[in-house]
Design goal:
- The complex is a heterodimer of chains A (298) and B (322).
- Chain A has 298 residues and is α/β, with parallel strands linked by helices.
- Chain A is built from nine helices and 13 strands.
- In chain A, the strands form three sheets. A six-stranded mixed β-sheet of chain A has the order 5-6-7-3-8-9, with helices on both faces. In chain A, strands 11-12-10-13 form a four-stranded antiparallel β-sheet. In chain A, strands 2-1-4 form a three-stranded antiparallel β-sheet, covered by helices on one side.
- In chain A, β6, α6 (162-179) and β7 form a beta-alpha-beta unit.
- In chain A, α4 runs antiparallel to α5 and α5 (132-145) packs parallel to α6.
- Chain B has 322 residues and is mainly α.
- The longest helix of chain B has 47 residues, at 2-48.
- The chains are: A alpha/beta (298), B mainly alpha (322).
- Chain A binds chain B through residues 48, 51-55, 69, 71-72, 75-76, 78-80, 82, 84, 86-89, 91, 95, 98-100, 102-106, 139, 142-143, 146, and chain B through 1, 3-4, 7-8, 94-107, 109, 319, 322.
């Protein structure tokens, strides 16, 4: 199976600012992938490159093995919900569904209709009068009803209130369960990702800091604390991601495939949020060391 | 894609259709009366020879409706500003391009459908309006006999060329500038600039003018122009023609000045054979028969410019935008 998204030395520049630079990654298909990173990491740029709204400045990107937006067939295979889920404010919900039917050859009108009815949206309601959550749901319904193989969602819940956020993610989970579509979802809200994602990619300053199955990541990382110790004296197979020290005590977040046997340590499970924060911090520090003048745009 | 283009365009189409309908009704109600007035006031006066009072009286009718000619001038700018400029710019400005370009239709096809539909509508609107104005004004134009000068760009087929050009200009400006309001302003300025350029620097050279030298022969409807002892000319020599220059020259070929008339034989009897003697009239003009050739040429120029701008839009949306 082709990866959902594969990039090689991908770069995108706006004027003099690099939004994405030397980004090489591979996001597997058949999963719900969370793409997480701080603002300006290049998540949104990456997704827009993947859907063909942007052209790379240099480097290459393949989506499901094809070039983004190369033709109607490729466009058909990828569903996209852009940041803030833009819709035509002067067109009704019904007209939006009509648009989907006109512009997509695999359009599933029944699916779109039932989604909109489930949301309680009146078909004659103008998109401009919808709440942020309803608009996001409408955009998701449009993206799903074209029956894509891959669904790309750019910060779909960032601007929603907690309730709307939960409903949106619930809808998404239903869709994944029923249609088996691959999903790549960018967000900086780790709690939301934890609920829906089974694969995680942490992107900081265009570089992948960590990628893997959520369950593997959680089982291979530990927070350990014990008497103060120099991180350089840690065992080789225990990679230190994060460290903090008091006078007498050291706490490390380590990555290891082997159990931690040293009785001096008390071992705790890590949460996904701990993990993401630790890698984001590390990525930021590395980024600062390497390219101190690096400018980030969101 | 055409069907969705129609969904997005139908409101603007309805407004244009409504406006055309109102104008059509106004013209249908007053047009026949104008023809009637022409046949009673103007056609009969030519028998008596002096028509100036009759034509003045005739031209005083329906002044307000005569101003619809100006609407034909304004239409291209209106279409360029309100149909052309927002076509892509609004999508870019409101972010909806991220919705529509992610559907199963390529950007080029999307643009082709949107551009094609509204361009056709522009042709239809401009053609219909020009047809109505040309028909309604035909009695007035027959009296004025100024088809080449004051109303050339308000009649016939050139308004179609102007409108399609202004539309393409609006779309291109919107696509390049990516914001509706600045694109509208650019469209207006650009359209007016190109029109002025073509009117004053291109149109006179489309066909080489006819140059004739003939014995001076004054007939009714003609008169001298004499300005401050400057060169003497004739007006009204070629009805309906576009006269570039019309000078009176003597046997040596030099221009004759106004004070010639106050000397010798001319002092007593202006216009007499003795006075005019061996004077000749040098005319440089475009004959009235070339009117439609000029109409076709000028329309073709603007359609050609519109095609170039359209090509630029396709190139830009595929290669440059992003």
């Amino acid at each position: 199976m082709n990866p959902a998204v594969q990039t090689t030395a991908l770069a995108k520049r706006y004027g003099r600012k690099w939004a994405l630079r030397n980004c090489t990654l591979s996001i597997p298909a058949g999963k719900v992938v969370g793409l997480v990173g701080p603002n300006g990491a290049g998540k949104s740029t990456l997704l827009q490159l993947a859907v063909g709204l942007l052209e790379p400045t240099s480097g290459a990107i393949r989506v499901l093995g094809g070039r983004p937006a190369e033709g109607p067939a490729q466009l058909q295979r990828v569903g996209f919900v852009a940041q803030d889920s833009p819709t035509y404010s002067n067109l009704s919900v019904q007209r939006h569904l009509r648009m989907g039917a006109y512009l997509n050859s695999n359009w599933d009108q029944d699916l779109a209709q039932s989604r909109v009815e489930n949301l309680g949206l009146g078909p004659r309601q103008k998109a401009g009068s919808l709440s942020g959550g309803q608009r996001a749901q409408l955009a998701l319904a449009l993206a799903i009803a074209k029956r894509p193989e891959l669904l790309l969602l750019d910060e779909p819940v960032a601007s929603l209130d907690p309730l709307a956020r939960r409903e949106f993610l619930q809808t998404l989970m239903e869709v994944v369960a029923v249609h088996g579509v691959s999903v790549v979802l960018s967000s900086h809200l780790v709690a939301d990702l934890e609920r829906v994602c089974d694969y995680l990619v942490i992107l900081v300053a265009s570089q992948v800091q960590l990628a893997g199955e959520v369950s593997d990541l959680l089982s291979s990382h530990h927070r350990i604390s014990g008497p103060r110790r120099d991180p350089r004296r840690m065992p080789l197979q225990q990679e230190v991601i994060e460290e903090s020290h008091t006078d007498k005590q050291s706490t490390f977040l380590i990555r290891t495939d082997e159990p931690v046997l040293d009785p001096a340590w008390s071992v705790m499970r890590v949460t996904l949020e701990d993990l993401v924060l630790a890698y984001m911090t590390r990525g930021r520090d590395i980024g600062r060391r390497q390219v101190p003048q690096l400018e980030m745009v969101s | 894609m055409i069907r969705f283009s129609w969904v997005q365009f139908r409101l603007q189409a309805a407004v244009a259709g409504g406006a055309l309908l109102i104008i059509a009704v106004a013209f249908a109600l007053t047009g026949p009366n104008l023809v009637h007035l022409y046949s009673t006031i103007v056609a009969s006066c030519t028998a008596h020879g002096n028509c100036s009072t009759a034509t003045d009286a005739f031209l005083a009718h329906d002044r307000l409706l005569q101003d619809f000619g100006n609407l034909v001038i304004a239409l291209p700018a209106i279409v360029g500003i309100f149909w052309g400029a927002p076509l892509v710019a609004r999508e870019l400005e409101t972010g909806t391009y991220r919705l529509v370009w992610a559907q199963g239709v390529t950007r080029s096809r999307w643009l082709a459908a949107r551009l094609g539909l509204v361009a056709l509508a522009s042709v239809a609107v401009a053609g219909l309006l020009s047809l109505m104005v040309t028909w309604w004004s035909s009695p007035i134009d027959r009296v004025n006999m100024n088809q080449f000068t004051s109303v050339f760009d308000q009649r016939g087929i050139v308004p179609i060329g102007y409108t399609v050009f202004a539309f393409a200009m609006g779309v291109a400006a919107g696509l390049l500038i990516r914001r509706t309001l600045p694109a509208m302003a650019t469209t207006l300025v650009g359209y007016v600039a190109v029109r002025v350029l073509v009117t004053f620097f291109v149109r006179p050279h489309l066909i080489a003018p006819v140059r004739t030298t003939s014995a001076l022969h004054m007939s009714s409807g003609m008169s001298y122009i004499e300005s401050n002892n400057g060169p003497l000319g004739v007006i009204g020599a070629k009805p309906g023609a576009w006269v570039f220059s019309d000078r009176i020259v003597n046997a040596a070929g030099h221009s004759v000045t106004g004070d010639f008339l106050s000397r010798g034989a001319c002092l007593q009897s202006r216009g007499s054979a003795a006075c005019l003697g061996k004077l000749r009239e040098v005319l440089v003009y475009q004959p009235a028969s070339r009117y439609w050739a000029f109409q076709w040429y000028e329309m073709a120029i603007f359609i050609g410019l519109a095609v170039v701008l359209g090509g630029l839009c396709f190139w830009w949306i595929r290669r440059r935008i992003s």
